Amino acid sequence: MTELLPNYAAGRWQTGHGTGAVLKDPVLGQDLVRVDSTGLDVPEAFRFAREQGGAALRALTYRERAGLLSGVVKVLQAHRDSYYEIATANSGTVKNDSAVDIDGGIFTLGQYAKWGDALGDVRALRDGDAARLGKEPVFLSQHLQVPTHGVALFINAFNFPGWGLWEKAAPALLSGVPVIVKPATSTAWLTQRMVRDVVEAGVLPAGALSVIAGSSAGLMDQLGPFDVVSFTGSADTAGIIRAHAAVAQRSARANIEADSLNSALLLPDAAPGSDAFNLLVREVVREMTVKSGQKCTAIRRILVPQDVYGAAAEAIGAKLAGVTVGNPRNDGVRMGSLVSTAQLHAVREGLAQLSAHVDILHDGRQVPLVDADPAVAACIGPVLLGARDADAASVVHDVEVFGPVATLVPYRDMGHALALAQRGQGSLVTSLYGADEAALGHAAVHLAASHGRVHVVTPDVAQAHTGHGNVMPMSLHGGPGRAGGGAELGGLRALDFYHQRSAVQASPGVLAALGL
Ligand code: NAP
User: Fold this and answer.
1) Span(s) in the chain for CATH 3.40.605.10
2) Which of 166, 234, 477 to mutate to test the pocket of ligand 1 (most atoms within 8 A of CB)?
3) In the CATH scheme, what is the code of domain 41-258+488-512?
4) pTM
5) Is 296 a catalytic residue?
6) Which parts of 280-423 are beta strand (E)?
7) Closest ligand 1 atom, residue 295 Cα
8) Domain 262-473 has CATH 3.40.50.2000
9) Which atom of ligand 1 is nearest to the CA of 188?
10) pLDDT tens-digit map of 212-250
């Protein structure tokens, strides 16, 4: 039997009493480790985090907690190599793709450490200036933000076991709120190992960080009115979280990051062969292949002027033809596997759903795998689809295939293009490609209403832009509607979720004594 990974709850390592779920190598098919949370005293875990972890964190100032984040960064950097090994084994990712998860998480923590340090040695935050409540400035209203006296429960998705923990934990811990993370089972190993290293290094107060790997059963039941839950995953599970009594009745705050039909839009001025056209092609290929397309922000729909459709299909297809797929341990491989055979089946099912409504413009499924057994490995080559009738092919705007799959969609004019982008019903990100600044600016404002982020690529930022799918801690991550309605990151805006806003109405003397 493989090793059973312990959970860290209530300040101690605890192994589940069941046999557990087996985590596998998606390329070689071997068993790796097991996770299980059967028999854990879940109420005790939440009580301990809330009472011990919360109190210890809130006793510190923002600057001191920023110092804790810097301590976590050092620990993770010291163990970086082992995280890469786990990612290769459990997520089937090539080095560059593992970096997005591992170094992306460390980078995000480092940013919050820097921003937190600048907040200084205070224990609450001033929110705007005091407003007078009457004619004379003798009785004022000062809004402030104080850390919530609860626990932050993270229920995370399988595709980012590293970054997914730290992009949430950085603002939570900086806010003074203890964290309990429940990673997705299939890739829980990396999350568990990172927590293990941080706990063993003793850089955080007891109760500040816990990990429960295995079933989610009973976790939501523990949430009370001052707790928060941050969920990343499918729209179906999101519905369960929203309807749970903790959220629906006890008003525990919920942040939901769900699936998203993100788009890339080539503006009418970008003819084939132009810089903007080439930038779109490069970005689409990158987005389809990084982490085998298993990124919530990946481009799923490529909107191009109808007279450019053929040229775009050809250019994207030609680049995809050069993508080698297979065992991430082989240096010649550019794209590794999906995280599991279950995901491979899900991608195949998604492709079958789309196939009745689209043409296949490039089919990487026919290309032999490098160093991997197609009967075992959860590998699939990139597939570019094309929907000649953009309006009729509803399924293209509705079904997210969570793999290296995207659909080329022709549009008639800019009004049609904007309407098609919005058929995603609310997305995490759209990217625009062109050189006409006025047209790009107009489109950006228009699409901002239905997108959490609008990434505009002009030829002058060819080298500087950070990538359509890259989630930078400085910018908002989260989108309205179908994307879940969540809001993460965006610099210090992320702290809002972990704070309670309150208006203190008092005399100037009392307000001066708030210690802000
Ligand atoms: P999922 O099945 O919804 O799982 C997500 C998490 O929820 C896992 O930790 C899972 O645990 C847990 N879970 C499952 N059932 C639950 C329940 N009844 N109560 C509480 N927790 C429960 O999602 P997935 O299919 O693994 O993830 C892929 C999806 O995530 C994609 O659609 C993708 O678009 C989305 N995603 C979104 C973002 C974003 O930031 N917007 C980022 C990444 C992924 P187990 O693993 O133990 O089942």
Assistant:
1) 41-258+488-512
2) 234
3) 3.40.605.10
4) 0.97
5) yes
6) 301-305, 359-363, 383-386, 405-411
7) 43
8) no
9) 46
10) 999 999 999 999 999 999 999 999 999 999 999 999 999
